[in-house]
């Protein structure tokens, strides 16, 4: 079964500080810049990054908890994932990410911009030359 704690070399009840220190030490050891051209080190670094991402994210830990003893996710057909559990994000996770980045404020601003732009086009506001508009005000 996939065990991110074992990959990082810490116990499941380790503190986040201990996990971070273990990750940092492994990252320094297997980083591609320290091991140029070593494919095994690059593969190990990817494995370490995936394990660290899972341990830091409670949602990923919950998904990992759904795994059965033989390492297959419960669900349709019981097929094992192609990569670590965080390799494929669901649509809901993607939508939550987009909403966090852009939020409802962004969407409202875009809608208001287009309404104002249409209003300006219909009534010719903002289309005059700046000098002519300034002269009209005087």
Q: Helical residue percent?
A: 55-70%
Q: What's the SSE pattern?
A: HHHHHH
Discrete helix count? 6
> How would you classify the helix and strand content by structural class?
mainly alpha
The low-confidence runs, each spanning 5 or more residues with pLDDT under 50, are: 73-88
How much is the average pLDDT?
A: 74
How many extended strands? Answer: 0
Strand content: under 5%
How would the global form be characterised?
A: elongated
Task: Describe the fold and architecture.
With 138 residues, the chain is mainly α. Helix content is 63%, strand content 0%. It has six helices and no strands. It has helices spanning 4-8, 16-30, 39-56, 58-65, 91-123, 130-137. The longest helix is centred in the last third of the chain and has 33 residues, at 91-123.
């Amino acid at each position: 079964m996939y065990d991110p704690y074992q990959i990082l070399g810490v116990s499941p009840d380790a503190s986040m500080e201990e996990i971070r220190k273990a990750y940092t030490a492994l990252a320094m050891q297997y980083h591609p810049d320290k091991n140029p051209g070593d494919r095994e080190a690059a593969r190990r670094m990817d494995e370490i990054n995936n394990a660290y991402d899972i341990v830091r994210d409670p949602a990923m830990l919950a998904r990992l908890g759904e795994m059965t003893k033989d390492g297959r996710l419960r669900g349709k057909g019981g097929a094992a994932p192609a990569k670590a559990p965080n390799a494929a994000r669901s649509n809901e996770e993607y939508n939550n990410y987009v909403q966090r980045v852009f939020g409802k404020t962004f969407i409202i601003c875009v809608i208001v911009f287009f309404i104002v732009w249409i209003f300006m086009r219909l009534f010719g506001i903002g289309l005059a030359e700046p000098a002519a508009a300034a002269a009209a005000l005087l």
